[in-house]
């Protein structure tokens, strides 16, 4: 019993939030809701090699390559069960991925995509909060749904894509 009493007295105290109400008190109610993580996008210098890694080496389900000229990219989606990876490769000389790859020769994380339930309401509120949106209107993204991108300097260095759920 001496060991048990020593363990009981020396065990660290686990602190928990007393209630979720105190945490959510500081979050203002919005006309729109942030949803689930839709995908993480990775710029790749060699799309075929990247597809092969995820499909042949890691055994993931990998989509066919889709060209999105309006966005200047080729996209491939890798299914992960709870989310997806989006592999991005330049399409055309003005591709934002081409300039990204000039700075990051081996590729790397390009952006994250989070779903929203009302993209127009999100845009209006984010503009009021001085978050820069990289286009005046949503564009149709790789999933055939409206998307916008938020300026990385306003999002702690992360390019954030919002997609209408």
UniProtKB/TrEMBL annotation:
Enzyme class: isomerase
UniProt keyword Metal-binding present: yes
GO CC, any one term: mitochondrion
Keywords, alphabetical: Cobalt, Isomerase, Metal-binding
InterPro entries cross-referenced by the UniProt entry: Glyas_Bleomycin-R_OHBP_Dase, MeMalonyl-CoA_epimerase, MMCE/EMCE_epimerase, VOC_core
Source organism superkingdom: Eukaryota
Any one GO BP annotation for this protein: L-methylmalonyl-CoA metabolic process
A Gene Ontology molecular function term of the record: metal ion binding
E.C. numbers: 5.1.99.1
Pfam entry (one): Glyoxalase_4
Annotated ranges, domain VOC: 36-165
Catalysis: reaction(s): (R)-methylmalonyl-CoA = (S)-methylmalonyl-CoA
Protein function: Methylmalonyl-CoA epimerase involved in propionyl-CoA metabolism.
Record family assignment: Belongs to the methylmalonyl-CoA epimerase family.
UniProt xrefs under PANTHER family: METHYLMALONYL-COA EPIMERASE, METHYLMALONYL-COA EPIMERASE, MITOCHONDRIAL
Protein name stated in the entry: Methylmalonyl-CoA epimerase, mitochondrial
Source organism: Sylvietta virens
């Amino acid at each position: 019993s001496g060991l048990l009493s020593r363990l009981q007295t020396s065990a660290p105290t686990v602190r928990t939030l007393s209630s979720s109400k105190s945490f959510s008190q500081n979050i203002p109610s919005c006309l729109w809701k942030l949803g689930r993580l839709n995908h993480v996008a990775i710029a790749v210098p060699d799309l075929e090699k990247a597809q092969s890694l995820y499909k042949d080496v890691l055994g993931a389900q990998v989509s066919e390559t889709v060209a999105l000229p309006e966005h200047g990219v080729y996209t491939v989606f890798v299914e992960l069960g709870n989310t997806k990876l989006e592999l991005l490769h330049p399409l055309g000389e003005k591709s934002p991925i081409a300039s990204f790859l000039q700075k990051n020769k081996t590729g790397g994380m390009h952006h994250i995509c989070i779903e929203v339930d009302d993209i127009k309401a999100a845009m209006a509120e984010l503009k009021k909060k001085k978050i820069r949106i990289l286009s005046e209107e949503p564009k149709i993204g790789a999933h055939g749904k409206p998307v916008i991108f938020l300026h990385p300097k306003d999002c702690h260095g992360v390019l954030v894509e919002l997609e209408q759920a």
